[in-house]
UniProtKB/TrEMBL annotation:
Stored InterPro entries: GAF-like_dom_sf (IPR029016), HTH_MetabolicPath_Reg (IPR050707), Tscrpt_reg_IclR_C (IPR014757), Tscrpt_reg_IclR_N (IPR005471), WH-like_DNA-bd_sf (IPR036388), WH_DNA-bd_sf (IPR036390)
Protein name per Swiss-Prot or TrEMBL: IclR family transcriptional regulator
Residue ranges constituting the IclR-ED domain according to the UniProt record: 67-236
Any Pfam family: HTH_IclR
Domain of life, per lineage: Bacteria
Length: 241
């Protein structure tokens, strides 16, 4: 099969990347794997290194670079948003409350998608809003399955405790009442990516007078089901990984 795109330099660069997919390679190993002339292989590898698509390990061998992971993450987020938006709309319609999708970014959680309740009292969280990781059911979900060291670090200054997070892991969802904002309650559940890693949190939120002081009783099942639909769609998008 002819894999040529008709753009010679691009095809040769892809040969280098394909060779590095198998693991670190010296220049001699790159030449052998790609069939490229030594000066060509070296020039392409160094050019890719300049753009962080290729890097070097401690032994000076060429390896795949960090830019590929960044691009993969961006592509994954695009897939996540495309999958999540209709599910959030369904969740909003089912519960009658505003629905959000949060991703963790450092010490904050960012609302990356939302489906707002059309009228009446609602908890509006515009897309792009950054909220602290120290309060709210979505913060609990995004922290609960972290590695122990990161989890305990995240508890510093938090309005919830390690016991709270243990309960979140046990039942598979979190709720909060006036934890992030007075008068607001919420319920959240984890969205999982390949390997079961928690990559986002689905939430519904609204006034305590509607969600009550036990919002999980009302909406946990619907929020968990929505999170599982998104997780399953992400697994399918990643080839069932």
């Amino acid at each position: 099969m002819d894999n040529s795109s008709g753009v010679g330099v691009l095809d040769k660069a892809v040969l280098v990347l394909n060779a590095l997919e198998a693991g670190p390679a010296s220049l001699a190993q790159l030449v052998q794997a790609t069939g490229l002339a030594r000066p060509t292989a070296h020039r392409l590898a160094c050019a890719l290194e300049h753009h962080r698509i290729v890097s070097r390990d401690m032994q000076g061998r060429f390896v795949l670079g960090p830019r590929l992971a960044e691009l993969s993450s961006a592509a994954g987020e695009d897939r996540l948003l495309a999958v999540a938006q209709p599910v959030l709309a369904q969740l909003r319609d089912h519960t009658g409350e505003s629905a959000q999708l949060y991703r963790r970014q450092g010490d904050e959680r960012v609302c990356v998608a939302a489906a707002e309740r059309a009228s009446g009292l609602r908890d509006t969280v515009p897309v792009g809003t950054a909220l602290p990781m120290t309060a709210g059911s979505a913060a609990q979900v995004l922290l609960a399955w972290e590695e122990p060291e990161r989890l305990h670090r995240g508890l510093r200054g938090a309005k919830f405790t390690a016991t709270t997070l243990a309960a979140v892991r046990r039942r598979g969802w979190a709720h909060s009442v006036a934890e992030r904002e007075q008068g607001v309650a919420s319920v959240s559940a984890p969205v999982r990516g390949p390997g079961g890693k928690v990559i986002a949190a689905v939430s519904v939120s609204g006034p305590i007078e509607r969600l009550t002081r036990s919002p999980g009783r009302l909406h946990a099942a619907a929020v968990v089901a929505a999170a599982e639909r998104i997780s399953e769609a992400m697994r399918r998008a990643n080839g069932g990984a």
